[in-house]
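ok new one. same drill as before - structure tokens go in, u give me an amino acid for every spot. 402 of them this time. try not to just spam alanines like last time pls lmao
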């Protein structure tokens, strides 16, 4: 009875459609009979009964790659792991001849106070050309002559540290290999906060790690970052950068290298910093060419003039500078420096260098880095209400200040 009711239901539904209802009624009645009798039918057989095209099994979908994955595929093979070993002195053996030590230890040197120990470290780097020139951070390879360089494909090569520049935290390494994958260098000229940033490296021993974020800020000075002894304006990013990432590339959304990552703030949370690629490449070229970098040196300490600092200096130092004075105040001139030889004095306000106005120490530093050693440098200053131009010839930065 139930079968009959279902068959009548199919017939009524088909008749209500109108136009060819008899044919539809016949097809649905036949289909319901097949289902009720539970006849085992293949896909093609069932399709023939209902006059439908055979079912085609779906093909597996190819996973789509977003721009981050594409960039990593392009650049990943050019990122290397750098393993370095250096000897670290604990206490000089001569110290144990001191009566103070002999009083406690006699002739026995405690094992924890031995002369040297081996310190192992791991960082990152990236290949600049197919012949094995590699860029990395100075603090990754400083104090060693050779390192071990491992590529993503597992190949490992001994590497020679060609040059180290601690002033900018840039170093270069050379391995003997050919036809190596290399990165594509980009530019920071059109870089802006909010753009994508991708970091690749080997943080905390986890090889080939990829993190992504945005450019958080540009032109962070060494003082702002907390390393006043460096001459770099950093790119700030929220892409995670941890120990081991140092020396790895920071990429834009096209997979071009725009900076070299450096893990310089142990207490940073969500803050990473990178050396702009233009600075890193300029230093690298000099290191590969001569093994060292000569930084121009004036020998002054500077202070940015703001309304607050101006008022305080006039009150505490008796400078009597006009309220509308702008520029960079010289607060110290080092003895024997080019600045002293040229006649610059404490209290001078630098207002322009080579005709370009300056209002911050960062601007002065940037202009100095683009100056050749020994080149005549015209500096416009204001001294006791008078404007003067003093010519200074920068000398190489002394080794003790590096």
């Amino acid at each position: 009875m139930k079968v009959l009711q279902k068959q009548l239901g199919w017939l009524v539904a088909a008749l209500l459609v109108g136009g060819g209802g008899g044919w539809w009624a016949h097809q649905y009645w036949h289909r319901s009979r097949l289902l009720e009798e539970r006849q085992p039918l293949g896909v093609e057989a069932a399709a023939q009964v209902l006059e439908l095209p055979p079912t085609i099994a779906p093909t597996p979908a190819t996973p789509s790659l977003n721009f981050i994955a594409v960039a990593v595929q392009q650049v990943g093979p050019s990122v290397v792991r750098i393993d370095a070993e250096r000897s670290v002195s604990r206490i000089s053996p001569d110290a144990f001849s001191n009566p103070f030590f002999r009083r406690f230890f006699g002739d026995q040197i405690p094992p924890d106070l031995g002369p040297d120990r081996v310190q192992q470290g791991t960082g990152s780097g990236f290949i600049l050309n197919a012949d094995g020139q590699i860029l990395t951070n100075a603090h990754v390879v400083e104090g060693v002559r050779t390192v071990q360089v491992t590529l993503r494909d597992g190949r490992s090569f001994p590497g020679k540290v060609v040059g180290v520049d601690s002033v900018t935290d840039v170093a270069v390494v050379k391995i003997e290999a050919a036809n190596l994958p290399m990165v594509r260098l980009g530019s920071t000229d059109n870089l802006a906060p909010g753009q994508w940033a991708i970091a690749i490296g080997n943080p905390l021993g986890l090889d080939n790690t990829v993190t992504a974020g945005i450019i958080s800020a540009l032109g962070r000075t060494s003082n702002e970052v907390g390393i006043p002894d460096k001459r770099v304006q950093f790119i700030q990013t929220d892409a995670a950068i941890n120990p081991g990432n140092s020396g790895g590339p920071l990429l834009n959304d096209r997979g071009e290298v725009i900076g070299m990552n450096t893990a310089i703030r142990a207490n940073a949370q969500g803050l990473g910093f990178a050396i702009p690629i233009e600075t890193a490449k300029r230093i690298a070229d000099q290191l590969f060419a001569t093994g060292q970098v000569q930084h121009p040196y004036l020998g002054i300490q500077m202070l940015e003039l703001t309304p607050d600092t101006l008022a305080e200096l006039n009150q505490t130092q008796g400078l009597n500078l006009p309220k509308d004075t702008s520029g960079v105040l010289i607060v110290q001139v080092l003895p024997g420096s080019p600045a002293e030889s040229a006649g610059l004095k404490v209290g001078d306000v630098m207002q322009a260098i080579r005709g370009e106005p300056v209002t911050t120490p960062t601007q002065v530093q940037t202009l100095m880095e683009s100056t050749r050693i020994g080149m005549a440098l015209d500096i416009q200053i204001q001294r006791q209400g008078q404007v003067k131009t003093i010519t200074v010839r920068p000398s190489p930065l002394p080794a003790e200040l590096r």
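The chain has a mean pLDDT of 81. and btw The chain is about 25% helix and 30% strand.
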